Amino acid sequence: MKKIKTIHHLFSLMLLITLATGCKEYLKYIITTRILPDGSIERTMLVEGGDSTLVKGDPSSVLAGSLPVPADSTWEIVTGLEERSINDSTNDTIYYYRARKMFCNSDELNKEINWDSAGDNHVSRNIKVEKRFRWFHTFYRYTETYKQIFPFTRKSVNDYLTDEELELIHADDDEIYYSAESDRLMLKKDTLVRHALSKADSNRMAEIKEALEKKYFEWMNINFFEEYFDMLKKALEKIGIMKLPEAEKTRDSLFAFFTDNANDEPLWFSDSCDFPLLLASRFYQVDTATLYQANHSGFDSINKKLGIGWWDIGDTYTNLAIMPGVIISTNSTTINGNTVSWYIESDDFYEKDYTLMVESKKVNKGPVIVSGAFVVLLLIGLLVGMVRKK
Questions:
Q1: CB of 232 within 8 A of CB of 282?
Q2: Is the four-CA dihedral 327, 331, 334, 340 of positive or negative sign?
Q3: 42, 100 in Cβ contact below 8 A?
Q4: What's the 3-state SS for 110-167?
Q5: Rounded to a whole number, what is the largest CA-CA distance in the chain?
Q6: Which of 49, 105, 158, 197 is the Cys-Cys partner for 54 at CB 3.0 to 4.6 Å?
Q7: Nearest residue to 140 via CA among 358, 373, 371, 379
Q8: Regarding predicted confidence, which is higher, 9 or 255?
Q9: Which residue in 254, 239, 351 sits closest to 295, CA to CA?
Q10: Are 201 and 178 in contact (CB under 8 A)?
Q11: Domains and CATH numbers, the chain
């Protein structure tokens, strides 16, 4: 929806205005994970970009992207320029950065991809590869979880919105259709019948959109407030305003005060918690600086979350998994032999974790041959016994 998209990217616009380099170009990540029969992992990361810095061959923009990019000598790294897609009308070439490395298990891989020297500016992921031997078959399971981008995580978004509503939240206005028959919003891709909307239908559509946005911002606000209030309680106790149990009793009334004074903007809509701190100082009638100093480390931890680039992740991620044997289960919709793939955007894991999953099984030739030989010998023994009896 337009308002949601605007708020998600407003900080991005503010940042770009201050950059002398001009317009930012987002990166494209293509990540291939090959699971070998022994459970080891071959990991390849290809990063493509095309702004002026990258075209000159300087990988600094790649290294500053949303995913940590391998740069040490333990990886096989290849860089260069290649022609753009025929559909891309910008520069003729793009810069690419390809890194490849083998890992004994997923624990090793997790340590490598989450080293994150840039702190919280990188998307966090967790990979798990499991191997189970079952005599005739060996079963493999690969999962990779992209961790939630929105940094305040006390309340689940599904307590406020369904998955269908979240999809509508992230859709552009021209992708949404109002169904008068069911009195709900739908994505245009989900319906073939699109009657012209009357004025009453248009008003009803706007009303439903506003209600969805209200629930969405309520979820964001309460998540920010819950973490902020925990820091605030400790500050109030330290300066002698009130003890923790007494402060806890003011939680709901303070949240209502925040909401009434936020001027319809999200509480987290800043790069620091100065505004919530100002509101709290008014509510409890205490000096702002005194309140901050009483728990500056706690408030600084919130400022750090507000100051990171979670609002400005426009990169795209294509994940491919190549499995041993035959695919038996996956949440991917694209399967080609023993390879599955997922195309991911930041919206997919903005409000909650997003997990890729695929399972496969491989025939164990050795046990099959041994078992077959045993059966053949058993049959021969039975036949010999029957012949001797005759």
A1: no
A2: negative
A3: yes
A4: HHHHCCCCCHHHCCCEEEEEEEEEECCEEEEEEEEEECCCCCCCCCCHHHCCCHHHHH
A5: 107
A6: 49
A7: 358
A8: 255
A9: 239
A10: yes
A11: 8-151+313-367 (2.60.40), 157-307 (no CATH)
Q: What is the pLDDT of residues 81-127, one digit of tens each?
A: 777 665 555 556 777 889 999 999 999 999 988 765 445 567 889 99
Query: Residue type at 278?
Result: L
pTM here is: 0.82
CA distance 34 to 42: 5
Strands 184-187 and 334-336: unpaired
> Are 163 and 348 contacting, i.e. CB atoms less than 8 angstroms apart?
no
The answer on pLDDT for 8 being more than 80 is no
Q: From 308, 319, 315, select the one nearest 62 (Cα to Cα).
A: 315
Q: What is the DSSP string of 322-390?
A: E-SSEEEEES-SEEETTEEEEEEEGGGGSSS-EEEEEEEEEE-HHHHHHHHHHHHHHHHHHHHHHHHH-
- Look up tokens 């001009």; give the residue: 22
